[in-house]
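Risk register update: the risk of archive-format incompatibility is retired. Evidence:
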Amino acid sequence: MRAALVLVGLLLAAPLGVPATAAPSLPALFSVIGVGAGDKLNVRAAPDPKAEIVGALAPDAEGIEVVGLDPTGEWGRVNVGEGAGWVALRFLVAGPDAWAADALPEGLRCFGTEPFWSLRPEGRTLRYASPDGADKVLDLKAVLEVPGAASRALVARGRMAGITAFVTPRDCSDGMSDRAFALGVDAVLEGEGAPRLLTGCCSIAP
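Archived output:
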């Protein structure tokens, strides 16, 4: 209970992402536009048209997760392969707001290391998986939100286990690659002896 109260404080004190006047809140999903059928959209090492090319997106690519903006607001940071890079936002168009009220992004998944674990909403349940044993599918009792922000608190309970997870906007690394994430997660896992605090990153990429 004490750990959960501390995490509530973290949720309320966390940055609220991009301003409410900016749409959509990040991370958000985009599609490529304005690129010829035989061409590609370059992903660069820095937000500069002369920077090294580190990857490319297809001219019809969809579901591209933008995890950050450069100071000019003209470049978006995306993941490609095992790393991250920058694309010119004039070649991207935003999809529907993934952070609609009373909802979770369809592709939301959270994960951590040491030990490897993952959380994924599935309808009105929350699936917790780890190498330690069988998956736990818990009833999703509540989804709480900070209005206008990419922040959510998930409360899930089962007969033998419970999870309270706080998803908040912050720079996050999975510790295994050079990929970048715009969401972090702190979760309290109960029902396996003493409560455990899990920390990791989240993505909304499909």
